[in-house]
Amino acid sequence: MMAVSPSRTHQRRLWVKDRSKDWWNQFNSPDFPEHEFKRAFRMSRPTFEYLCEELGSAVAKEDTMLRAAIPVRQRVAVCVWRLATGEPLRLVSKRFGLGISTCHKLVLEVCAAIKLLLMPKLVQLPDQTSLQVISQKFEYVSGIPNIVGAMHTTHIPIIAPKVEVAAYYNKRHTERNQKTSYSMTMQGVVDPNGVFTDVCIGLPGSMTDDQILEKSTIFQLGNGGLFRDRWVVGGTSYPLMDWLLVPYTHQNLTWTQHAFNEKTGEVAKIARDAFARLKGRWTCLQKRTEGKLQDLPNVLGACVVLHNICEMRGETLDPELRVDLTDDEIVSEKGIQSVAAMQARDGIAHNLLHRGLAGTTFFN
């Protein structure tokens, strides 16, 4: 047997593809124009820095003997860019000078960190101290006292899942788009500023709004007395409950009832507008979201948290990014769930009229 000479042996070297990071280096430069940075990442540089600081310890990695770790700023930027643009991973890969699988992994890791670390702090129901301020703001908009939230449910398009295909099939989107459509749902409650205070994410797109409501935490909390003598306002797709105030839906409304519907409509519009800004800012929510079903709630949850950060920090949305919601409101078959709520609604409508707060478009 021939012995191998030590001189003929050699160390194995790890081959790493050399990719250009010019695009990211340009954006990451302190000299890069602020307005262009904000247009790209949907947030100002100070807000981006805040996000990196909050996530740093959770997403940072150590250098190894084989390669240097991707910096926290670049990790966060890959995720935010992907959520903001919905750009295919192969293009994200070219921009940031990273592999496609690396970019995919970074998006999932950062989204999971955002949901785990920041959602409990930034998406929460108001405490007793802030309830009064919130209800005053809603009353200023509607003339209706004791409102503490506005609710809406939207659908996020997804590619056909590999499991439970029928559950995620969206009949109305299919009919509208003239092609088979699937979706995942997102129910949200917002404050008067359009900041989300509660979300229910991930239920299948074949479910109706009232079915989704019954599966949500806020349904259990509301029925448990959390909103005692206070209201969350929703649209016609929800039932009237002791804590959930919705419009009249029967035919031949009186002027009083019509005026009430106008006023609750103004509150419900705050929730719709918040969802429109959410989808406008994070374009990935408008496209058929790729990925495994179990990963999507983290991605959608991260978008909600980032929306709240932008809203709380006064980040305005570029008018070019505004979108119109296409959610269908199907009148709830659950109807009236509480006689007491029905009497309370009639009382609110009566008071609006007699306090001179009712609208006048009924006559137009």
Q: What Rg do the Cα atoms give?
A: 25 Å
Could you give the order of the helices and strands? HHHHHHHEHHEEHHEEHHH
N-to-C terminal Cα separation, in Å? 102 Å
Widest sheet: strand ordering: 3-2-1-4-5
Number of helices: 14
Helix content: 40-55%
Structural class: alpha/beta
Write down the overall mean pLDDT: 90
What is the tally of beta strands?
5
Largest sheet: 5 strands, mixed
Question: What spatial form do the alpha-carbon principal axes imply?
Answer: elongated
Instruction: Name the beta content range.
Output: 5-15%
Question: Which ranges are low-confidence, i.e. pLDDT below 50, for 5 or more consecutive residues?
Answer: 1-16
Characterize the structure shown.
Helix 4 packs across helix 6, helix 6 crosses helix 13 and helix 12 crosses helix 14. The protein has 14 helices and five strands. With 364 residues, the protein is of the alpha/beta class. It starts with 21 loop residues before the first helix and ends in a 10-residue tail after the last helix. Strands 3-2-1-4-5 form a five-stranded mixed beta sheet, with helices on both faces.
Entry keywords:
elongated; 5 strands; 364 residues; 10% strand; alpha/beta; disordered N terminus
Secondary structure blueprint with pairings:
Layout: H1 22-28, H2 34-41, H3 45-59, H4 72-85, H5 89-96, H6 100-122, H7 128-142, E1 147-158, H8 165-168, H9 171-177, E2 182-190, E3 196-204, H10 209-215, H11 217-223, E4 231-233, E5 244-245, H12 255-281, H13 296-312, H14 339-354
Parallel strand pairs: 1-4, 4-5
Antiparallel strand pairs: 1-2, 2-3
